[in-house]
Amino acid sequence: MITPQQIILAVLPVYLLMATGAVLRKTRILKREHDAGIMHIVFSVLVPCFILDQTLGAEILRNFGTLATGAGLGFLFIVTGIATGWLGAKAIGLTPGKGFRTFALASGCQNFGYAAVPVVEILWGSSALALLFVHNIGVEVAIWSVGVMLISGDKRIVWKRLINGPIIAVSIALLLVSLGLDDKVTGPVRTTMSMIGIGAFPIAILMVGASIADLAGTEKPSWKIAIAACIVRLIIVPALIILAAKFIPMSTELRQILVVQAAMPAALVPILLARIYGGQPGVAVQVVVATTIVSLATLPFVIYHGARFLELVPVAP
User: 38-81 pLDDT, tens per residue?
Assistant: First the structure.
C-alpha cells in the first residue's frame, strides 16, 4: 500500500515550486508585467504539447466508457462542490451581493490542473495522467457553464469560452486515438513536442505561487470565510468524492485521479470569474489563500487515507 512518505514526497515539489514562485515575485525577478505573456505561452503552447505527448498512444483512451465516465464525473463533482459551497455560504450568513455566490463557486472548484498533474504523474503514472486530461474537460464545462451562470446570474451558456489550448489538444488526441493514428506521431515531431511540453507545469506552478503571493494580504482576512472554505473544500467535498469513487463502478485509473482531485485546494479560476462577472473577488482570494495554506497539512492526509480506503497502489514502491 501507499505510504505517507510517498505522498509527502509526491506533493512536496508542487508546494516548493509555489514557494519559489512567491519568492521570485517578492524579489521582483518575476514581475507582474511578465505574467500575461508567460501564461499565454504556457496555456496556448506548452500545456497542449504536454497533453498530446502524454495522451497519444495511451491505451486507457481507447475505452469510450471510461472516457465518458471520467468527463461526466469531472462535471458532476464540480457541481457537487458548488452546491456544498452554497450550503456553506448559507451557514456562515453570506448574502447575495456580499460574497454568497462567489464563496459557493470558489470553495466548490478544486485546483484540477496545474497542481494535480504532477501529483497524478508521480503517484500513478502515465495512464492515469492521460485520463486526467479527459476528466478535466468535464471540469471545464462545469466551471464555464454552471459556474458562470451562478456568479453572473445569466442563464445563457457561451460555449466559445471552452475553445482553448488544452481542450483542443485533448480533442485532437482523442480523434487520433479513435482513428488509430496516435501511434504514428513519432520521431523528431514527438521528441520536439515532448521537449516543449516538459516545462509546462513547472512554469505554471511557479506562476500560481507568484499569483498567490500577489493575493495574500490584499484583502482583510475573515476567519469565518477562511474556516468555512477549508471545511467545504478540504473536508466535506473530499469525503463525498472518495465515497463516490469507492461505490461507483469505474476504472482504477479514474479512482487514482479522483483521490488526488479530492485533496486539491481551491482553484484560481473563480477569482477571474468574480472579476469578470461582478462577483466579490476578495472572497475568492481568501478562499484560495486559506485552502492552499491549510492543504499543506491536509493534502497528504487525504491522499494517504483515500488511497488506503480505495485500495490503490502507487506506480513505484
Answer: 988 998 899 999 999 999 988 899 989 999 999 999 999 999 99
Task: State the SS3 of the chain.
Answer: CCCHHHHHHHHHHHHHHHHHHHHHHHCCCCCHHHHHHHHHHHHHHHHHHHHHHHHCCCHHHHCHHHHHHHHHHHHHHHHHHHHHHHHHHHHCCCCCCCCHHHHHHHHHCECCCCCHHHHHHHHHCHHHHHHHHHHHHHHHHHHHHHHHHHHHCCCCCCHHHHCCHHHHHHHHHHHHHHCCCHHHCCHHHHHHHHHHHCCHHHHHHHHHHHHHHHHCCCCCCCHHHHHHHHHHHHHHHHHHHHHHHHHCCCCHHHHHHHHHHHHCCECCHHHHHHHHCCCCHHHHHHHHHHHHHHHHHHHHHHHHHHHHHHCCCCCCC
Residue 266: strand pairing partners: 110
Instruction: Give pLDDT tens digits for 244-294.
Output: 999 999 999 999 999 999 999 999 889 888 888 888 888 998 999 999 999
Nearest Cα neighbor of 103 from 9, 13, 225 is: 225
Which amino acid is residue 286, in one-letter code?
Answer: Q
The grid coordinates listed for 31 are: 514581475
Instruction: Kindly list the structural domains of the chain, giving each domain's residue range(s) and its CATH number in brackets, ordered by start.
Output: 4-309 (1.20.1530)
Verdict on whether the full-model pTM lies above 0.70: yes
Q: Cα–Cα–Cα angle for 95, 108, 167, nearest 5°?
A: 130
Residue 316 confidence (pLDDT) above 70: no
Residue 317: which pLDDT band, with cuts at 50, 70 and 90?
very low
Inter-CA distances, 202 with 13, 46, 104, 115, Å: 9, 11, 29, 9
Q: Please give the pLDDT value at position 272.
A: 82
